[in-house]
Amino acid sequence: MKFFIDTANLDDIKEAQDLGVLDGVTTNPSLMAKEGISGQQNIIAHYNAICAIVDGDVSAEVIGTNYQEIINEGLELAKLDDKIVVKVPMIKDGIKAIKYFSKEGIKTNCTLVFSAGQALSAAKAGATYVSPFLGRLDDISTDGLGLIEEIRLIYDNYGYTTQILAASIRHAMHMVNCAKIGADVTTSPLSAITALIKHPLTDSGLAQFLSDHTKAAGRP
Ligand code: G3P
After folding, report:
1. Exposed, middle or buried by CB within 10 Å (0-12, 13-18, 19+), for 164?
2. Beta carbons within 10 angstroms of residue 104's beta carbon
3. What's the pLDDT tens digit per position in 149-194?
4. How far is CA 82 from CA 97, 131, 170, in A?
5. 133-155 b/e with 16+ CB inside 10 Å = b?
6. How many angstroms separate the Cα of 159 from the Cα of each of 78, 147, 155, 163, 164?
7. pLDDT at 137
8. CA of residue 22 relative to chain centroid, distance
9. 208 CA distance to ligand 1 middle (Å)
10. Of the four listed, 37, 115, 143, 183, which is most buried by Cβ atoms within 10 Å?
11. At 12, is the secondary structure helix, strand, or coil?
């Protein structure tokens, strides 16, 4: 399973990249705004900065909501770097645009997906990635992981190559459960990625080993 980081924060992206387990980055307009990035030139410069840090795919979201706007923005974004994946919302014009980008060989990430029917439509249109938001479903007492399972089943039934990019991940257990189900990718905050590594028994076990080593070294 690939690990993407869901942020526009360059320090977090660098830290995850340095860890050696990062496969890509996803951003969205809210995450860009959180970093104070606004204005077309600054947004483009920020995507270039992200692409310079990571080796893998970088999702850059369009703002337009009609077909022509999505196409124009997507073509501009795709020109920036081979790593750019055009992130398109799950709306009618978005599906049409994904079909167009797919024919042109431009990678896409269909975002704001909350149902199996939406995921099926994204795969039919040829999306490279589909982003079901599991945390936001959990937030409204709906089974987010259950949706990932449904999409996995449907894609496997027909051999769709669209990759399931489990998004809106909140913690390490979401990532572990996505791996059990067979999600292709998770995108999460840095905190979820680093939490995977931590276990209190590892910490106490290591402290004991080092203490025993020191005691033994002090013996005659
Ligand atoms: O980038 C899309 C998605 O991961 C957003 O997550 O935490 O805002 O629900 P969240």
Report:
1. buried
2. 11
3. 999 999 999 999 999 999 999 999 999 999 999 999 999 999 999 9
4. 19, 20, 29
5. bbeebeeeeeebbebbbbbbeeb
6. 27, 18, 6, 11, 13
7. 98
8. 10
9. 40
10. 183
11. helix
In short, whether 171's Cβ falls inside 6 Å of ligand 1 is no
Interatomic CA distance for residues 183 and 23, integer angstroms: 14
Is any ligand 1 atom within 6 A of the Cβ of residue 26? yes
Which residue, judged by its Cα, is nearest atom 10 of ligand 1?
A: 168
pLDDT tens, residue by residue, 17-65:
999 999 999 999 999 999 999 999 999 999 999 999 999 999 999 999 9
Size of the chain, expressed as the number of residues it contains: 220
> Which residue in 87, 92, 99, 103 is the catalytic one?
87
Q: What is the pTM of this model?
A: 0.96
Report the amino acid identity of residue 145.
L
